[in-house]
Amino acid sequence: xxxxxxxxxxxxxxxxxxxxxxxxxxxxxxxxxxxxxxxxxxxxxxxxxxxxxxxxxxxxxxxxxxxxxxxxxxxxxxxxxxxxxxxxxxxxxxxxxxxxxxxxxxxxxxxxxxxxxxxxxxxxxxxxxxxxxxxxxxxxxxxxxxxxxxxxxxxxxxxxxxxxxxxxxxxxxxxxxxxxxxxxxxxxxxxxxxxxxxxxxxxxxxxxxxxxxxxxxxxxxxx
Length: 223
Fold this sequence. Notes:
The protein is an alpha/beta fold. 37% of the residues lie in helices and 30% in strands. Residues 213-223 have low confidence and may be disordered.
């Protein structure tokens, strides 16, 4: 199976081409210019591997949480390509990808800095060669998350953000600062989703924002 994977959730992103779970190439994308880069970079990637878009079997997209603008650009691109080629899409939570990429086993907590003193939290049970089983994904105040983690059962906490790691270490909570998953990890996890029959369509693909956009928040305050 040939999968094109896209991650535009953060200040920098990436695209990857994978065949049968093995990355053929990972291409970095500079942030704040996703709309100008995505299609040219995808085209160049396929040309380098002597492929064209009709050879793609499925798409995988990091669906959030993350940058509202980045997510809209990435998911719109995947929707358009999927609709034209009539290929399935795997929508992959970045929190789930953090847990799965750890290659740990059993309960795992993923955490992402959501700014504004808040943190995105995902709780999963990770299994060998299978999709993680989600328990919850939530947006929490960082202080509340630290206190909850400190008082709760001992579960591995993984985060790519040093700010979250430092807050947990300050309260003697064991935490591992890991690499932020890139498009190759999104693609591998997406392949498992497609194989399990969990793919989606352009009509049902949606961003996993967890937090509402500023426009929604401020419009509600003014109403």
